[in-house]
Design goal:
This protein is mainly α. The protein contains 10 helices and no strands.
Amino acid sequence: MAESPRADARRNYELILDVARDVFAEHGIDASLRDIARRAGVGIGTLYRHFPTREALLEALLGRGFDGLRARAESLLAAPRPRDALLTWLGEVATGSAVYQGLPASILAALEDESSALHGSCAAMRAAGAGLLERAARTGAVRGDITIDDLLAFVAAIAWASEQSSDPSGRAERLLSMMIRGLAGARDPQMAPTSASDRDGHGHGQPSPEVTAP
């Protein structure tokens, strides 16, 4: 018995997603949509019927991940150490952003473009992250003049830099820890220099405790 049109359409939808996941992993998110259609064994028109734009295809692939990061940020609001909660979340954002080459820039663009299919899920993630940042700022764990857009731009840069490394996770962890040190400044007593000479960068006092990234 032949497949119904609805079942055939669903099969094509899932097949295109599976192939797109592989092609984007191999060539980045700017990979040819025609190549995706060809490898899926469907016409380019079929691909566009399911995914009218590249952003719509990315949203189908990544939307659940962004929703998970939003939920994760909301759950971390109850964590006892606001700075560590923020760092944990930023590490997970960086890891998610590094899934496909070129994705960090696409996320930043989607946040600015309300017409993008990625905008809704990215904006919800940003709003949840802003709650973590505000909580950390209220306790003095980070400087009060930092915005969530600043942080996401830093994370996008870290994700890009990590892509170029032979040890992506290790480099991301190190850069995130350095970023948090810079964001804390002298407001966080755990990150403050131990002496005047340390503040000048010439002392040899005890180092501040390390923050462990996820």
